[in-house]
Amino acid sequence: MIKSRAAVAFEAGKPLEIVEVDVAPPKAGEVLVRIVATGVCHTDAFTLSGDDPEGVFPAILGHEGGGIVEAVGEGVTSLAVGDHVIPLYTAECRECKFCKSGKTNLCSSVRETQGKGLMPDGTTRFSYKGQPIYHYMGCSTFSEYTVLPEVSLAKIQKEAPLEEVCLLGCGVTTGIGAVLNTAKVEPGSSVAIFGLGGIGLAAIIGAKMAGATRIIAIDVNPSKFDKARELGATEFVNPKDHEQPIQQVIVEMTDGGVDYSFECVGNVDLMRAALECCHKGWGESTIIGVAGAGQEISTRPFQLVTGRVWRGSAFGGVKGRTELPGYVEKAQKGEIPLDAFITHTMGLEDINKAFDLMHEGKSIRSVIHF
Ligand code: NAD
Ligand code: DAO
Ligand code: ZN
């Protein structure tokens, strides 16, 4: 057992508590990682709110981290002590039906136990005062030390600053990947991006990389527009400035609708708007935002009959172990400006401030340094 400083979510809807937890050594096929830095994503706030159907408490949240391998369990072959890694909430075992399909980045190898906050053997490595603490999304990066399955870690270049590339563990990769892998946006396309948090801003970078010529950035918080412009958005729309439904505004701006749209908020009404602002015959809308438990999407089926396509994307369709080193390389070359996302940095003791800043719309990403 080792001691680890961690921000624990003891109950839904309550601030995280900084305590010293016990971390058990990695079992066979597992790896102990020292987390150097972690981003705070909207999904952490979503789970903390109690709206996540898979949310179990008490748990150590966090899934956007960067760290260094501290110890490996029996049988671990792809990682060694000292390797730099990014934890993956979407594992990549390369052996399951999903991994071998060539059609998806979803992997079934650790999925069942991960969704219950447990390690693959059905137990947890964290405890506090003798009571078990659950894992979160297979990552639990809000702890100085965490244990993950080997298949849930991407080995990355040691030269890359973990305080920045941790953002590739979720938000930035998700937004870029959704554009490049899921929607496969073509050069010359028009794109509408709903929501300009970490995910939406990354989708703007992806749209620019794909050669989109019109990138319409939409947010109810106009303070997000400057950063969107800096990253490549060409037009800016605040739905609050218009009386018509936002889909109608976009359709009028674009002679019938955009080629591609992305919902980066998690609002089911906005998901409908994002679909309906797509061009008849070919427009495709990708849902990235995660909606609350029990919520449903709706539209008139005629929207699909007349050629619009509705898709969804998890972790940008990216296979983490295989593809993340390439994303890190792009960040190192300046093609993915990670520093643009980091609006705040703080120590673990201030992590609740990161959640406040997010709820107040004042941050893109707060990065916690351990
Ligand atoms: P965020 O809170 O930082 O950003 C959301 C943005 O949406 C904010 O700028 C907010 O002002 C804007 N917004 C809110 N309501 C709006 C409305 N009605 N119209 C337009 N804009 C509106 O969140 P984030 O970290 O960027 O995450 C965005 C969503 O993506 C969340 O639902 C998160 O859970 C989800 N997510 C999905 C994946 C995936 O793999 N699919 C990965 C990470 C995050
Ligand atoms: O394989 O059934 C499955 C689920 C995989 C989980 C993918 C999660 C994607 C959305 C969650 C937001 C992540 C921050
Ligand atoms: Zn797999």
TrEMBL record:
What family name appears in the similarity comment?
A: Belongs to the zinc-containing alcohol dehydrogenase family. Class-III subfamily.
Question: The Enoyl reductase (ER) domain covers which part of the protein?
Answer: 13-368
Q: Name one GO molecular function term.
A: zinc ion binding
Cofactor(s) annotated in UniProt:
Zn(2+)
What job does this protein perform? Has high formaldehyde dehydrogenase activity in the presence of glutathione and catalyzes the oxidation of normal alcohols in a reaction that is not GSH-dependent. In addition, hemithiolacetals other than those formed from GSH, including omega-thiol fatty acids, also are substrates. Also acts as a S-nitroso-glutathione reductase by catalyzing the NADH-dependent reduction of S-nitrosoglutathione.
PANTHER family found in the cross-reference section: ALCOHOL DEHYDROGENASE (PTHR43880), ALCOHOL DEHYDROGENASE CLASS-3 (PTHR43880:SF12)
CDD domains linked to this entry: alcohol_DH_class_III (cd08300)
Keywords assigned by UniProt? Answer: Metal-binding, NAD, Oxidoreductase, Zinc
Family matches, as Gene3D superfamilies: Medium-chain alcohol dehydrogenases, catalytic domain, NAD(P)-binding Rossmann-like Domain
What's its top-level EC category?
oxidoreductase
Domain of life the protein comes from: Bacteria
InterPro entries documented for this protein: ADH-like_C, ADH-like_N, ADH_3, ADH_Zn_CS, ER, GroES-like_sf, NAD(P)-bd_dom_sf
Question: Which protein is depicted?
Answer: S-(hydroxymethyl)glutathione dehydrogenase
Per the UniProt entry, what are the Gene Ontology biological process annotations, in alphabetical order?
formaldehyde catabolic process
One of the record's GO cellular component terms: cytosol
PROSITE patterns, sorted: ADH_ZINC (PS00059)
Reactions this protein catalyses: S-(hydroxymethyl)glutathione + NADP(+) = S-formylglutathione + NADPH + H(+); S-(hydroxymethyl)glutathione + NAD(+) = S-formylglutathione + NADH + H(+); a secondary alcohol + NAD(+) = a ketone + NADH + H(+); S-nitrosoglutathione + NADH + H(+) = S-(hydroxysulfenamide)glutathione + NAD(+)
Q: Recorded E.C. number(s)?
A: 1.1.1.284
Question: What SUPFAM superfamilies is this protein classified in?
Answer: GroES-like, NAD(P)-binding Rossmann-fold domains
Q: Which Pfam families match?
A: ADH_N (PF08240), ADH_zinc_N (PF00107)
